[in-house]
Amino acid sequence: MNLPPKVTERAFARLAEINDGGDIRALRVAVSGGGCSGFQYDIRFDDAESDDLVLEGGGQKVLVDPVSLPYLAGATIDFEDELIGARFIIDNPNASSSCGCGTSFSI
């Protein structure tokens, strides 16, 4: 059986900062065809669907749809804040290669 993706405390903490004082929105992490390597990540705020996997921590939610779930099995969703920018990142053990920007990958 495939392991579900996991979300780091740092990613949940950043979601809490983003959602502070406003409508709490969940972060959706999805995979679609495209990008320079074949597949690309789609990371956006969204509402939960009835068939989503919901990962919760610190009062925050990350959503993964059933079509994207096999591509994200065992992946780690994290947040990084570096000099070149801040972003949610995905460490995906299923990806055999990825592009330089980290938003597309191949299996």
Automatic annotation (TrEMBL):
Q: Which InterPro entries match?
A: ATAP, ATAP_core_dom, FeS_cluster_insertion_CS, HesB-like_dom_sf
Query: A Gene Ontology MF term for this entry?
Result: 2 iron, 2 sulfur cluster binding
> Which stretch is the leader sequence?
none
All copies of the Core domain together span: 6-102
Question: What's a GO biological-process term for it?
Answer: iron-sulfur cluster assembly
Q: What NCBIfam families does the record tag this protein with?
A: iron-sulfur cluster assembly accessory protein
Q: Which PANTHER family match?
A: IRON-SULFUR CLUSTER ASSEMBLY 2 HOMOLOG, MITOCHONDRIAL
According to UniProt, the name of this protein is Iron-sulfur cluster assembly accessory protein
**Species of origin:** Paracoccus caeni
